[in-house]
Amino acid sequence: MKSIVSALSAAALGAATLLVPGVAHAAVNYVALGDSYASGVGTRTYISSSGSCQRSTKAYPYLDAARLGANLTFVACSGARVADVTNNQLSAVTSAANRITVQVGGNDAGFSSVITECAKPAWLGNCDTAINNAQATINNTIPGRLNGLYASIKSRASSAKVIVVGYPRLFNGTDCNAGTFFSPAEMTRLNQTADLLNSKIATAASGAGFSFVNPTSAFVGHAVCGSPEWINGLSNPVSESYHPNIAGQAAYANLVAPALTKD
Description:
The longest helix has 25 residues, at about 185-210. The protein has helices at about 1-20, 35-40, 60-70, 80-90, 110-120, 125-140, 140-155, 185-210, 215-220, 245-260; strands at about 30-35, 70-75, 100-105, 160-165, 210-215. Strand 4 (about 160-165), helix 8 (about 185-210) and strand 5 (about 210-215) form a beta-alpha-beta unit. The model is unreliable at about 1-25 (pLDDT under 50). A 5-stranded parallel beta sheet has the order 2-1-3-4-5, sandwiched between helices. Helix 3 (about 60-70) crosses helix 10, helix 5 packs antiparallel against helix 6 (about 125-140) and helix 7 packs parallel to helix 8. It is of the alpha/beta class. It is globular and about 60 Å long.
């Protein structure tokens, strides 16, 4: 009888062990790469040691790492282009990494300067030319840059699950901000440009065997002037403008989390 009880106790203990979250699972080592959308610019609250990179505890990598109980290496940096990720962030990716997010490409397309140009009155700015130039870069230059970066990530952490994150449309069709002069046609073209960038990012991600998270549909109704607004309009300081706010980063975290946890 004693041996049967011992066997049953051992079986119960084993079952309990399997049910305890985190037990019998490898540690999650999560590396977050990217630009200001990944670092959390727009949330107005930053980790002081991150300096000009403006990393926030409200950014989706930080939120999702907490959900996963992951060891987070957070190297996303405001202003980063693909080359900056390669030169300044990629060293954080090692064979120990088993979860990686990367969100980059918007600065390569020059979105900040395009938005600045298009925000001007029509007689003062040249929005169409700025958008045309951005679309040409997205079509002709950015795919090759992304292919190179994704190949480098794969070579450094071949067994990691890599999630590539896209960009939302910035506008709902209404410009409610004093000091900006976006026409309906300009907002439509800017949204189309975001869609174009996402399509190129998605194609490059698929080619590398990575997952792609597209935020477009989730942010519909919540862009600049939305209700509630998940993307800041023209803000003070201006660097906070046209970036996800705290609610927007929480929305990103909800979108990215399933991809991070999926086997």
